[in-house]
Amino acid sequence: MTNTDAKRTKILLFFIFISFILTANFILYKIPILEPVPSGAVIGSILDFMIVIPLLTYFFIIRKRFSLKYMGVVIIAAYGAAYFIIPNEHFSQYSFLPYIVFLSEGLLILVELFIIYKVISKLPRLIRNYRSISNQDSLFQFHVRKTLQIHLPNNRLVAVFLTELSMFYYSLFTWRRKANIQNGYSYTYHKKSSVNAVYIMLIHATVIESIGLHYFLHQWNEMASYILLFINLYAILYFLAEIHAIRLTPFVLTTDRLLLQTGFSKSMDLPLAKIKEIKYYDGPEKLNKREMNNLFDARVIDFFQEKPQFEINLKEPQEVNFNYGIKKEVKRIILNVDNPEVFYQAVQKSIVKDETVSK
């Protein structure tokens, strides 16, 4: 069984277990013939929602793939499911449950605060190192990631911190900045696409949804309305960060590396020595899931996604960085640029030059 098949099997088992738990509890409280529900069954239901579901989610989905930060979302979602499925006359007997949720969220916040403390305690060294690397260019995320790897290596929570830092930096503090590349040749990849229009449309839709749903939810559940408002504000900042990151981080070709960052959500620092070939793409317009497993799609989103211009094949798998510390190894890259012929000739020449130097 391949790694992909194993992952799919795990996800399928996860959804089977979760569906069974939700269905069993729903039937228990909604079918009149099963009334009255014994108190032991109610305790079992609470354990299902507050312990079993979070643990299943951690072991099947989150572990080794996502940050522990997501456990807070899982616990809140499980509590919400319990609130809607277990009748209030049973649920209200266990008034301590909200405190368990708040305690769990508090512990996760403390963990994040500890990470922030570690970063702040090393801040002078981090700033000095960042300045020595960056040369005041606009490749913010590449340089911060490199700096954090030097001082706080292999820490998933630090990777989450980097995502949050990048999002706030790009969305709030880069409105007047211009792309500035000090080392290497830069190639834009968004000017011939409608990516900005896509994100502006998404921001517009999110704002309208926030106003409408916040008003109606506030009348039903004040807490739920504020949670949704927070999520929508976060989404708007995320979309703004993508717009500015795309503008400020073109693809960069240096003497020994090809830096590919698409927005702020995915990036790759690729040594030229690892490139087998670059060629004009001649494959299908739409790729199947199996092909996407070992492929990095470095294109921006578009209303009508065009066929890739180039395909880069690698000598051995290389790592792609996604938000929140998620990583993936790939052997192929597909991408588009605004000036394809210039980009192709430059990369082709750099590959040949690197191979000549290696020999």
Task: Show the helix and strand layout.
Elements: H1 3-30, H2 39-62, H3 69-85, H4 88-91, H5 97-121, H6 123-134, H7 140-151, H8 156-172, E1 185-187, H9 195-220, H10 222-248, E2 251-253, E3 257-262, E4 266-271, E5 275-280, H11 289-292, E6 295-297, E7 310-322, E8 327-335, H12 340-358
Parallel strand pairs: 6-8
Antiparallel strand pairs: 1-2, 2-3, 3-4, 4-7, 5-7, 7-8
Written overview of the protein:
The mean pLDDT is 81. Strands 1, 2, 3, 4, 5, 6, 7 and 8 form an eight-stranded mixed beta sheet that branches. The protein is 60% helix and 14% strand. The chain folds into four domains: 3-106; 117-183, no CATH class; 195-247; 251-358, PH-domain like (Roll), CATH 2.30.29. By secondary structure, it is α+β, with helices and mostly antiparallel strands.
At CATH's second level, what is the architecture of the largest domain? Answer: Roll
CATH topology of the largest domain: PH-domain like
Shape: elongated
Number of structural units classed as domains? 4
Largest beta-sheet details: 8 strands, mixed
Structural class: alpha+beta
Give the helix tally.
12
Which consecutive residue ranges, at least 5 long each, have pLDDT under 50? none
Transmembrane segments: 12-29, 41-61, 68-86, 98-120, 197-217, 223-241
Protein name: Beta-carotene 15,15'-monooxygenase
Keywords: Membrane, Transmembrane, Transmembrane helix
